[in-house]
Amino acid sequence: MATKVYDELEIELEDGSVLNLKPLPIKGLRKFMEVVAKIGQDDLQTETAAMDVFLEAAVVCLKSLDPKKYADSTVEDIEDILTVPTMMKILEIAGGLKSADPNLLGAALNGEI
């Protein structure tokens, strides 16, 4: 039997559905990194803008983790099924974005992530 080199985690979203979290494959991770790289750009210097980037990154994760369910999803589609802690857990597990700072939005804007 093969050994997985990563842990998986099941989380429940606000609509009651269950999502199996695991690291993104390289293709999905590249898309995720492109989105996260937007944080800190001159036109994205507010917490609201950073939150929009995190939501966009969460959409990338959801599309990769469950393409049948989330293939056509947008930020607006997922805002009702995610809380901030849930979103940050998705970004941490799937995208490798560490959320050790309790004020991650502020940390992102200061270039700390």
Q: How would you explain this protein's 3D organization?
A:
There is one protein chain. The chain is mostly helical and 113 residues long. The chain has one domain. The protein has six helices and two strands. A two-stranded antiparallel ribbon has the order 1-2. Strand 1 and strand 2 (18-21) form a beta hairpin. Helix 1 runs antiparallel to helix 2 (47-65) and helix 2 (47-65) packs across helix 5. The model has no long low-confidence stretch (mean pLDDT 86).
Tally of domains: 1
General shape: globular
- The total count of strands amounts to 2
Q: Counting H and I runs of at least 4 residues, what is the number of helices?
A: 6
Strand order, sheet with most strands: 1-2
Largest sheet, described in full? 2 strands, antiparallel
Low-confidence stretches: none
| Strand/helix succession | EEHHHHHH
Helix content: 40-55%
| N→C terminal distance | 37 Å
Quaternary class: single chain
Radius of gyration: 14 Å
Average pLDDT metric: 86
Roughly what fraction of the amino acids lie in strands?
5-15%
Estimated structural class? mainly alpha
